[in-house]
Amino acid sequence: MSKLCRQVSIESPGPTLRECVFSFDVPVPDVPMYGARIRVVYAGACYRANKTRSASVCSTSSISSIGSLSGEMENFGIHTHATPAHIGLRDGALFPGYEVAGVVDAIGKAAERLDGIKEGSRIVLYPYEGVPNGYAEYIVVPDFKCLVPIPDQLPLSVAAMLPTGALLATNTVATAAECLKKVLDGPSKKESTTVLIVGTGGLALWALRIATHCFKHASYNNRIRICVATLKDEGFILAKECEEVKVVQWNEDAYEKQLIERTTDACGGPVDVVLNFGTTSRSLHRSLQCLAPGGVVLVTEDVGEKLLPKFAKKAEDMNVHIEIVPNGSIEQLKELVTLVARGEIEPPPHSVFPAEEAQEVVRKLCNSEITGRAILKFHNID
Hints:
Layout: E1 4-10, E2 21-27, E3 36-44, H1 55-60, H2 63-74, H3 87-90, E4 100-107, E5 122-125, E6 135-136, E7 138-141, E8 147-149, H4 156-159, H5 162-185, E9 193-198, H6 202-216, E10 224-230, H7 233-239, E11 245-249, H8 256-266, E12 271-276, H9 281-289, E13 291-300, H10 301-317, E14 321-325, H11 330-342, E15 350-354, H12 358-366, E16 373-377
Parallel strand pairs: 9-10, 9-12, 10-11, 12-13, 13-14, 15-16
Antiparallel strand pairs: 1-2, 1-6, 3-4, 3-7, 3-16, 4-5, 5-8
């Protein structure tokens, strides 16, 4: 009989979180000829973006175990009044992605070793097309092109936050920088400009830190103002940690007109770029209202695919734009690893939980009860 290991799969949460977290045993995978087997140490709590349950869940989970798990989820006490699903989804505390940091357990006989990676090397996995279904204690990769070595001074728990949350934020900030450069140096150039970051969860917190670093080293750094629209009290406190950043709270009990006026006042007028990490129609509509003519709202792929058809005509009528930003490249991930390892970019706060507590972690994330990011621990290598 093959040796077994534990796998945790987090699917896209529904209104009541039924059948979105699964834990079961799977065979330890064989080492691929040209690739490697990875011993997963930490994994960021992200969910799979697809709407259907992964094939691995259907093939390895019994109907009775799924039914039992559903019963447990009903007792979680989820705040089901929140829409589109839960407040944690609205503010970006829980988002789709795949984040793994671990060590190389074994290498295929015909593998082409890159970047000095060997057995025992600490690595982070770039989320390539076709990543494994769920987080297992052991996963395999087809080759070394998706592996990024981690310096000794960078904790693996921090590295586990980089492949989706930090990388997506990095690419969003890079896209924003290109837009701002056109505003400052283009035909109708402005003397100064403002960028608004919307959100409170891990994506927005990464974006704030990365934007602060990026703009500080740009030639036009003194011409850019950063403002943050937070969706909860904790976000207000965290955002205020960064100096010279204006913060406005988007209290959902206030009228839309009041929130828009409050935001533009804090920003010194309409803004040119919004990094919108909120996931609701209301958040995107509000972001559009805060833009100056010709401005752009940047949204993630999952939000863009859902909301762009609804708002494309409105954006055109307002003479503003909505741009979808994909996850970043592996080159950006390598640079990000270096910057965080050197301490040039400080990661947002994170909490580590045993992988066995994944169900409870997702419940807390969906209710926005965890400050910063949540990381699942599979192995203890200390």
